[in-house]
Amino acid sequence: MKGAFNFCPYPQFFADSFFVEKPQRVETILFVMSLCLLVYNLGQRELINTLKRTSNRIKNQLGKLTNNPTLRWIFQCFQGVHLLTINQRQQVVNLTEERSLI
């Protein structure tokens, strides 16, 4: 399993923008962040275990097949998938075979 706090250097994680004065609010933020980290790690663990159990592999960032991807990479793979609604009909756009497998 990759390091739990590898997401910290990314610009999407604005740790320095939190400003709270009350200790209860600091505790709340830490609790929520810990809970999110727990859910993220459980999701990544389930993904990796399922890929290994089914002997499936998906492409990583370098285009090589792996059965040990990060959940962050999987989220990035789905950035281009959209639900399009036209005249009350819904259609999934940009859903490739590989994305369907995932």
Reported for the largest beta sheet, the result is: 2 strands, antiparallel
Which strand order do you get reading across the main beta sheet? 1-2
SSE run: HEEHEEH
Number of strands: 4
How many H/I helices?
Answer: 3
Shape: flat
Low-confidence stretches: none
Count of all domains: 1
Structural class label:
alpha+beta
State the separation between the terminal residues, measured CA to CA: 19 Å
> Roughly how much helix do the residues carry, as a percent range?
40-55%
- The fraction of residues assigned to DSSP E strands is 5-15%
Work out the radius of gyration. Answer: 18 Å
Q: What integer is the average pLDDT?
A: 84
What is the fold's blueprint, element by element?
Blueprint: H1 23-54, E1 58-59, E2 65-66, H2 71-77, E3 82-86, E4 89-93, H3 97-101
Antiparallel strand pairs: 1-2, 3-4
Quickly describe the structure.
With 102 residues, this protein is of the alpha+beta class. It has helices at 23-54, 71-77, 97-101, and strands at residues 58-59, 65-66, 82-86, 89-93.
